[in-house]
Amino acid sequence: MTFFSSSSSSSFLVRTTALAAFWLTTLAAPAWADDHGPRVPLLAAYKSECSSCHVAYPVGLLPAASWQRLMSHLPKHFGTDASLDAATTKQISDWLMANGGGRRAAEAPPEDRITKGRWFIREHDEVAADVWKRPAIKSAANCAACHTQAAEGSFRERDIRIPK
């Protein structure tokens, strides 16, 4: 006696395969920083050097070529001298080259600015221009002003608090 006809066993196989794929994807969830993509753990030198002035941005937000240009112009880093010693520059540069890019950074944004990239603009399209100018925010580059967990690498929508 058979319990499944050939069409019901095919349907069962499809449902089981889909369910298995769902669970395998779900089990990989600890590698995800937020609702948008995988998180690369920050290099300690990158985090300490870069977060001394701003949030240590997730490396996947810019392609490797953008990171390379930024690292080669540290004395003129967006109007600030962010120079580092040669060894630290090489360590951070090598890490950025190995981990830069991703699905949000397929191409370099204008001026290698994360805030001018298509992904960033699409994610923040509901933010009015005057919001960026609020004293507690100052600019779109100040992620931590609204993303309360940005320093930990999380940009989940549920953690957003826009200052008045």
UniProtKB/TrEMBL annotation:
Record's keyword terms, sorted: Signal
Lineage top rank: taxon: Bacteria
InterPro entries: Dihaem_cytochrome-c (IPR018588), Multihaem_cyt_sf (IPR036280)
Signal peptide: 1-33
Coiled-coil ranges (or none): none
Nucleus is among the record's keywords: no
One Pfam family from the record: DHC
The protein's name: Diheme cytochrome c
Native organism: Ideonella paludis
Lineage: Bacteria, Pseudomonadati, Pseudomonadota, Betaproteobacteria, Burkholderiales
